[in-house]
Amino acid sequence: METCWEEAGWERLAPDVVRRRMPEWDETVGVVVGRTDILVVDTGATLRAGAELRSLITRLTGRRPTRIALTHPHFDHVLGSAAFAGCEVYGATGLDELLRRERETLREDAIRHGVDRDAATEAVDHLVRPHHLVSGELTLDLGGRPVLLANVGPGHTAHDLAVLVPGRPEVVFCGDLVEESGPPQAGPDAIPGHWPAALDRLLALGGADAVYVPGHGSVVDAAFVRAQRDELAARFGVSG
């Protein structure tokens, strides 16, 4: 990958692995580049954001993204997906049906959090549902770059997907199972009784030396994830 990623506002996490903290909602978008494929982790909150991301990634790599992994079904992580025409989309089992069933809820949630009404409606009208569902673990080959998709939830939602990129260091895209910029948000679709166990699975995947990338906020280490796991257990009265 070229050195201009940083100049364009991206943070380098490992060779061929970067992420960007998006404006407005501070959601993370990740990119993993292989010889044959480019994986994008989450796609932003609007079609315009998705289109800008696709254009920027294409310019910086000289190739179009080919795959998308959606970490969970909240508006700021999924509504840009339709801008990535031709990409294969991956999500946790059940995400496709939820996005079909809860389209209006997703639209209203986006508007309530500040997305322009017309932009939210447009994004939901063109909403892309996953083509591939992950019930356990699935390894993608991006061309000399394996990436593991792991259904580690439920927790923050019923459909939490983590993305593990092996290497030195290993990089784990956590979605909103982990948040650094504020306390983890437990909305009406959270399953708090299972959230600590989801973080246990996340830590088992990444290990002690991995780089953990929250859905919002700065990159953290395993100790941070473990501390947040314990805080959630105490907050929701989960033993163990």
TrEMBL record:
Q: Which residues form the Metallo-beta-lactamase domain?
A: 26-216
Pfam families per UniProt: Lactamase_B
Please, which domain of life does this record's source organism belong to?
Bacteria
| InterPro entries reported for this sequence | Metallo-B-lactamas, NDM-1-like, RibonucZ/Hydroxyglut_hydro
Which Gene3D superfamilies does its entry note? Ribonuclease Z/Hydroxyacylglutathione hydrolase-like
Q: Report what the protein is called.
A: MBL fold metallo-hydrolase
